[in-house]
From TrEMBL:
Gene3D superfamilies noted in UniProt: AF1531-like domain, Photosystem II 12 kDa extrinsic protein
Keyword Membrane: yes
Name recorded for this polypeptide: Helix-hairpin-helix domain-containing protein
Keyword terms, alphabetized: Membrane, Transmembrane, Transmembrane helix
Transmembrane spans: 16-35
Length: 294
């Protein structure tokens, strides 16, 4: 019995195999020797050492420009409001930041670059780097002893009979308070119109940019003679639909209030609302204006 060999090829087949093998070899040589030279930039061997050095210097310069562009940019800012994070990005140490915050906690203001260094003890090099970006508003630039003629001292409280009704105060009246300018006075009046008049001074906390210190100054010069009328809801009998009409109370919080009320067999005081799951504690003083216990 004769077996036919599988490795017997005709002349035409052998030529085809040889051609295929040649193509494979050529492709391999192209991959290993030609492609790498196409991917990597080459420096003309005819270049002089000085030209090569200049080329490398140019590349380094471009890299330095890119690194500089990626650095955080500093924009003009009021140094009185430097936070921990802001101070860190400026290059201040934690001790320097703490000195500034302690100074500001006494309701004092930085009025110059020199005073900033005296308070924080920053180095001359750091001061020279960041002081060009200091931006002091007019009401900070003016010292407490050099205020505008319209400024009203708030060191002592006025008699109630001399105070202005906050619900009828004009922008000019509000600007007499130290720390209130055009923007804040306009926001106060706009918010007053939005809610149809103030019921309590705590509603001033809803005005963006008003700090607790400025609100305390307002209290010394103004009074709420015509408070907005608020329809109060009985906390111990209110339904979920009634509770959600109160600002900052949604259906989930209303549900939790009713659950807590059931467990307590009724609220004995409004402060117990603070124990309700998910209750917005920061808005408690605003919310309780609309609630009562019968």
């Amino acid at each position: 019995m004769k077996f036919q060999s599988h490795f017997s090829f005709t002349k035409q087949q052998r030529n085809g195999i040889f051609l295929l093998f040649s193509i494979i070899v050529i492709i391999q040589l192209f991959i290993f020797f030609v492609l790498p030279s196409l991917d990597s930039p080459t420096i003309n061997s005819n270049k002089t050492p000085e030209q090569i050095t200049a080329f490398i210097t140019q590349i380094d310069s471009l890299k330095a420009i890119e690194v500089e562009n990626r650095k955080p940019k500093i924009y003009p800012f009021n140094p009185n409001f430097i936070t921990d994070y802001k101070g860190y990005t400026l290059g201040m140490t934690q001790e320097e930041i703490d000195r500034l915050l302690r100074f500001r906690s006494k309701d004092k203001w930085i009025n110059s670059s020199q005073q900033f260094q005296e308070v924080t003890k920053v180095s001359d090099s750091l001061l020279n780097k960041i002081s060009p970006y200091f931006k002091f508003p007019e009401w900070v630039k003016n010292s407490r002893t050099k205020v505008s003629p319209n400024y009203v001292s708030t060191n002592s409280k006025l008699d109630s009979s001399k105070k202005i009704d906050l619900n009828t105060a004009t922008i000019s009246d509000l600007k007499k308070i130290y720390g209130i300018g055009d923007a804040l006075s306009a926001r106060i009046v706009n918010h007053r119109e939005k809610i149809n008049g103030f019921n309590d001074f705590v509603e001033l906390t809803e005005v963006y940019g008003l700090t607790a210190e400025v609100i305390d100054r307002i209290k010394t010069q103004f009074v709420i003679l015509t408070p907005r009328k608020i329809k109060k809801i009985n906390l111990n009998t209110a339904t979920k639909s009634e509770l959600v009409t109160v600002q900052y109370i949604d259906y989930e919080i209303a549900h939790q209030i009713i659950e807590t009320r059931t467990l307590l067999d009724g609220f004995s005081n409004l402060d117990q609302l603070k124990k309700v799951k998910g209750f917005p504690l920061k808005k408690f003083d605003i919310i309780k204006l609309s609630l009562q216990l019968n």
